[in-house]
Amino acid sequence: MFDPLKATTRIASSGLEAQGARMRVVAQNLANSRSTGATPGADPYTRKTVQIAGQFDRMVGAELVAVKAVGTDATPFRVEHDPGNPAADAEGNVKYPNVDMTVEMADMREASRSYSANLQMIKQARSLVAMTIDLLRAG
């Protein structure tokens, strides 16, 4: 039997999980935004990306969201001339991660808002269940 309140909660829960994973990846990108390679000329940290996709759940009877894959960004690394840096190559250039702070902050904000919206859906579903129980008790 299809329970719309249970389905709503499950859909919102899948959104919470997906956006939580997205926020963790953004936090990791931000934490490593200035990491360099361990040896001179080595590649630094590579920005990670999250792919979120819908998938139909027969038990719920609705489309849920899930993390499809965590990949890497193919954008080239930033190169800065800093001959005193231990990660500098023979020409004095240092490779820095392909992490753009503005993009990461925008992703974090979007993920946070989506997370909050999904949490609000769960709160509303719980409220509807409580109101239904109250109505049944009164009747």
Automatic annotation (TrEMBL):
Its main location: other. The keyword Transcription does not apply. It is found in: Bacterial flagellum basal body. GO terms for biological process: bacterial-type flagellum-dependent swarming motility. One of its GO terms (cellular component) is bacterial-type flagellum basal body, rod. Signal peptide: none annotated. Pfam families: Flg_bbr_C (PF06429). Keywords: Bacterial flagellum, Cell projection, Cilium, Flagellum. Residues 91-131 form the Flagellar basal-body/hook protein C-terminal domain. The keyword tRNA processing does not apply. NCBIfam families: FlgC. PANTHER family: FLAGELLAR BASAL-BODY ROD PROTEIN FLGC (PTHR30435:SF2), FLAGELLAR PROTEIN (PTHR30435). The basal body constitutes a major portion of the flagellar organelle and consists of four rings (L,P,S, and M) mounted on a central rod. The rod consists of about 26 subunits of FlgG in the distal portion, and FlgB, FlgC and FlgF are thought to build up the proximal portion of the rod with about 6 subunits each. Belongs to the flagella basal body rod proteins family. This is Flagellar basal-body rod protein FlgC.
